[in-house]
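Moderator note: this is an archived Q&A kept for reference. The question asked for a predicted structure of one protein chain; the sequence and the answer are reproduced below.
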Amino acid sequence: MPMTPTSVQTWRKAERERLIAARVALSPDTLEAWRRQIDAHLERGFPGLAGAVLVFCWPIRNEYDARHLARRLREAGATTALPVVVAPRSPLAFREWHPGVELAKGPLGIPYPVGSPQVAPRAVLLPMNGWDVQGYRLGYGGGFFDRTLAALQEKPLVIGVAYEQARIATIHPQSWDVPMDYVVTERGVYRRDPEGLAFLGAPPPQSALTSPVCYADERIVRGD
């Protein structure tokens, strides 16, 4: 029997709480090891991020911490930005952020930039409380990112980042849910294909004898 919108909402709330509790229980050593693995997969698999306007999210509740990667990408030429809640049930804005830009506290206590330029992202690193085999994301229930991605004239490359333990069979996607283009976990990289997520593996280290793996560079640079 299909789930109703109300039953989906109830189920998602319970599942969100379960997955967040499991993530919060992770040890600092585990979080650091998984963070380094995800960083490596992103750097090796998506080298075009180093030249992109990249949105990432300030981590809360033991989410993947993209700040380390963002620092290295800025050093390589990237522009990094954070999402800003403009109003309830409205699309997000994205404002440039780097150390030195003033931050204020927004919903859920998440910092956002104050007074910096608004940017149009070419790529987004989007944390996920849960993710399913079709590439759909279980967020915090506000619908901000789904609403924003649907409203953008030029859709950026969206890379969901999470841990393998947050994988579930389905989030019971609704008409407004927007799937990820890629999912990256400590295990490796998944690409969304028509049949669902395809596991691409862990990008190998680059050497003098090999070319870098580039899963989506042209799209990041050109906005295809």
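Archived answer notes: The CA atoms of residues 56 and 125 lie 5 Å apart.
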